[in-house]
Amino acid sequence: MTDDQAVVFEARGVSKAYGTVRALTSVDLAVRAGQITCLLGDNGAGKSSLIKVLSGVTAPDGGTLAVDGEPVRFADPRDALDRGIATVFQDLAMVPALPVYRNFFMGHEPVRGRGPLARFDKRKARAITEEQLASIGIRLTDPERPISTLSGGERQSVAVARAVYFGARVLLLDEPTSALGVRQAETVLRYAVRAKRQGVGVVLITHNAHHAWAVGDRFVVLKRGAVAIDAAASDITLDELVRHMAGGEEVTQMRRDLREIL
Amino acid sequence: MAIAHMTAPGRRALLRPELTAVASTVVVFVIFAVAGGDDGFLSALGIRNVFQVSATIGIVAAPMTLLMVAGEFDLSVGSTVGAAEIVFGYAVVHGWSLWSALLLTLAVCAAIGLVNGILSVRTSIPSFLVTLATMFIVAGGAAAIANGNLGGTTIAGVTDALDGDPLLSLFKGNITDWFPVAAAWWLVLSVLAAWVLGGTRFGNWISVTGGARASAERAGIPVARVKILMFVLAAAGAGLSGVLAALGTNTANAADGSSLQFEVIVAAVIGGTFLFGGLGTPIGTVFGALFFGLVYQGFYFTDIDTNWFQALLGILLLIAVTSNNTAREFTMRRLRDDR
Ligand SMILES: Nc1ncnc2c1ncn2[C@@H]1O[C@H](COP(=O)(O)OP(=O)(O)OP(=O)(O)O)[C@@H](O)[C@H]1O
Ligand SMILES: [Mg+2]
Questions:
Q1: Does A210 reach chain B within 8 Å, measured CB to CB?
Q2: In angstroms, what is the span from residue A47 Cα to ligand 2's centroid?
Q3: pLDDT tens-digit series, residues A129-167
Q4: Which residues are within 8 A (CB) of B226 and not within 5 positions of it... i.e. 6 or more apart?
Q5: Looking at CA atoms only, how far is residue A227 from chain B in angstroms?
Q6: Which of B57, B26, B37 is nearest to B301 (CA)?
Q7: Residue A255 pLDDT
Q8: How far, rounded to the nearest angstrom, does the alpha carbon of residue B199 sit from its chain's CA centroid?
Q9: pTM score, two decimals?
Q10: Which class does domain B52-320 fall in?
């Protein structure tokens, strides 16, 4: 349906081995602006390995990456970020004791004055942070509140909001919902959708087919490091998707068994 | 739940990491004022000495706080104090003016800090070990060089050599009979450190560098340079502290400051600085340093057996640091529950 959207970021024939483990074998992935591409697959299928290549954390052994069709090589995540490829890592890595706005603006602090000792314009930073968070339904009663007092979902959402605010064109989310409750996962997914509506190309890794189904425009299933499925939402059903996710059948069976036991 | 009903400024006061440091300091002050007040603890001289001791610790503790917020330690600051005294003393007794000798001393100390910084950042050896090694190198080197050149590890007549130097009153003596010049340096440097940390962009870089290094790097913050600069500042603080100490006693002593690193780090921790980086306040550290000044002078004026001094000091430290952590965790939990 939305395959006419421009491909902003692309992996072509990407391979990656860790010692003798072939984590990725000639993987193709196209990220389109304004779409959510869900990356699915069993444990060890290579999802995180692919994200690490896309985000500049590791270099691929083979294959190329291209931004706007132009081949690129990332030396580190900073390089990727400069090209508009932002990643919300599983660990998030915020500074727990610092207020939300200080985390939000890390490395991008608005200043008054010049030079290394330029004053941090905290009023502006607070106002923008409050506005950005309010738009995703997080209300901060106290702007000085440390980010560690936000819930896991809220912190994920702050990380996403931050990446989009600072101009990400592609957003890579590695299991943003895995540790979250239903409501919290919803917050994060809602924000991923918002980012997509703003024209950001989103790659979402999840083990939860229902989460993927709810927001995905395109589904890519990895199996032992290779692409098993690459289909638009209109070309596949939820049942097929669940079946194709390696281990999907076993999970369904296991659920049935568990229900009998309990 | 109580916090839920408080106004934002009220909650903020509870969140301030220096809160328990202020409380601890007030408590030890009251204890010693009651126990030793009549014996001179509250006299002008007693108070002056409290400030003098606090300043010696605090001048190093202010930059150390920033270094700790950036996620590193420096155990070599103590021996750097002794080395600074020898460098400064040697220069002035050979006719250098105060300013030139001070600059030389700060440059030598900055070089020590630079080595600490580069070794800690460029190798994967923790700064704890790097600076433990440089602590021995600096202490041994300073004593050996002093011994070789001077036939002893002390230099007498440091202040006398600067008699008539127009700048001497900036580094020696009292502003009023209960407030030494060193304490003014201490407070000014602490306020400056607090301003840099809380009020500048660079300050946020320091916090993020120590609290989430990988994210800081990803966000383009020059993490290595931030850390190295903090090592340099900590060493320079040790240099100034050494100069002030040498001028205060008219003697440069290579052994001075030999355990200062512990007092400095503990002062920062009492003040609310987190041992693992990302959080700290130079103003809290002021109270941490004052805590030491009060305790050291307080014991002196009470009739507590001096053999018990070390043991009691340790117990007081444990109480101060524990109440600190408890208060922080309590506040954090309450804030989380509020949501
Ligand atoms: N740093 C590494 N060193 C060695 N092997 C690795 C490394 N990272 C990943 N692997 C291996 O590569 C394969 C793919 O791992 P990857 O983490 O990409 O899987 P995943 O799809 O993200 O799994 P999960 O769903 O459990 O997160 C696995 O066999 C894994 O053991
Ligand atoms: Mg993974």
A1: no
A2: 6
A3: 999 888 777 887 777 888 888 887 788 888 888 888 988
A4: B70, B202, B205, B206, B209
A5: 29
A6: B37
A7: 66
A8: 21
A9: 0.84
A10: mainly alpha
